Amino acid sequence: MTVRRTTAALLAAAGLGLGLAGPAAAATIRVDDGDDTAIKADILRVAVKHDARLKVKVHFDDLLKHSDQRVQGLNVYVDTGGGDPQPELMMEAGLWKGADHVVARTGTGGWGLGQGVDCFSRLRVDWQAETAVAVFGHGCLGKHPKARVAVVAYESTDDGSGSDWLLGRRTFTRWVKRG
Length: 179
Prior knowledge:
Elements: H1 3-20, E1 27-32, E2 43-50, E3 53-60, E4 71-79, E5 89-94, E6 101-106, E7 113-116, E8 121-126, E9 131-137, H2 138-141, E10 146-157, E11 160-165, E12 176-177
Antiparallel strand pairs: 1-2, 2-3, 3-9, 4-5, 4-10, 5-6, 6-7, 8-9, 10-11, 10-12
């Protein structure tokens, strides 16, 4: 084998190895919302990371650890690119200490709570950092190569209630491809 052929063979093998490598990192987007509502659970920004799981990290203005003054909650809606523009999945969660969450298919019209889904999910709230991280396993999502989310925080007190949608009522982030 000549030097030229050997070099070409080595370069081709190296290129083939690089071509088989997976993505270096998962696709992530960050969306700023700003301080735009009077509720304490006002959404300031959201980061969406789509890798082995879909992770939605929400930064708030002022989360309360105890629900004796007001009740705060969060809904995260997930659209996986099905045939309609509505979300297929949602997580509904309380944001106070001891609250739980549920993952379900969306109900009629795509925005209500429907049939529960038995899959890996988690919600972690950090009251000092004013954040909540919602995690959906691929058992929840299926084998969809992309997802987008709509997020709403809400709270109620004896004086009334309010909500804050990320980007606007029932508005999704841009698509995030699985990394």
